[in-house]
Design goal:
The chain has 206 residues and is mainly α. The chain has 11 helices and no strands.
Length: 206
């Protein structure tokens, strides 16, 4: 394929994955009510750093050492635990949360680190890269490192574009939200995170 085709295919596949509700989307929505538009880009920066590392691992052939049942199960267990903790933490703090309190907070979460954490916490992220992602990286690598760069650019552009739109929309609507609606959004995010943790755990032990 030429570079444009590689970009389009990579962008389309990544966007189709990004549009599906999941832990990263729930985190972006939750954090955007506190930190505004910068949430999406900074969380995706962390996500991108982790994905660059995964591409390097695949190119170097190290994926053979992590692509086994024990490693995959361990990563999945840790991931479900992190998702569960994040979800329960939101629910536990829900009664005291307020839009006014959130906007007055001086301490800011490390959103980039959070992007890395939530990506690792999603077992499907690792599985995707060791299956679909692996195939695309190896295919692009045969064309050259420029093609590999184009593949990654298309992939991360889709993530950055979508999550930036989400954080922008949430941040602009913050002034229109009541505390009741705000807490409902946070509750939904918590349920999504806990739901995915349960769903992933069922898959591990089946």
């Amino acid at each position: 394929m030429d570079y444009l085709s590689i970009f389009i295919v990579s962008f389309t596949i990544a966007l189709s994955g990004a549009l599906v509700p999941g832990p990263l989307l729930a985190t972006v929505i939750y954090q955007s009510t506190k930190h505004g538009f910068k949430t999406g880009p900074l969380i995706i920066l962390g996500h991108a750093i982790l994905e660059i590392a995964m591409v390097i691992i695949i190119v170097l052939g190290l994926n053979r050492f992590i692509d086994n049942a024990l490693t995959t199960k361990t990563i999945s267990l840790l991931g479900t635990f992190i998702l569960l903790i994040f979800g329960l933490n939101i629910l536990c703090n829900l009664p005291s949360m307020s839009l006014d309190l959130q906007t007055k907070q001086k301490k800011s979460s490390n959103l980039t680190l959070l992007g890395i954490t939530m990506s690792i916490a999603n077992p499907y992220w690792t599985i995707w890269w060791l299956t679909i992602g692996l195939g695309f990286v190896l295919s692009a690598q045969k064309t050259g490192f420029v093609a590999l760069g184009v593949f990654f650019l298309g992939h991360i552009t889709a993530d950055l574009g979508w999550y930036s739109i989400v954080s922008f929309t949430i941040s602009k609507g913050r002034n229109l939200l009541s505390d009741k609606i705000y807490k409902a959004i946070l509750c939904a995010c918590a349920i999504i995170l806990i739901g995915f943790a349960i769903y992933f755990s069922l898959g591990i032990f089946n």
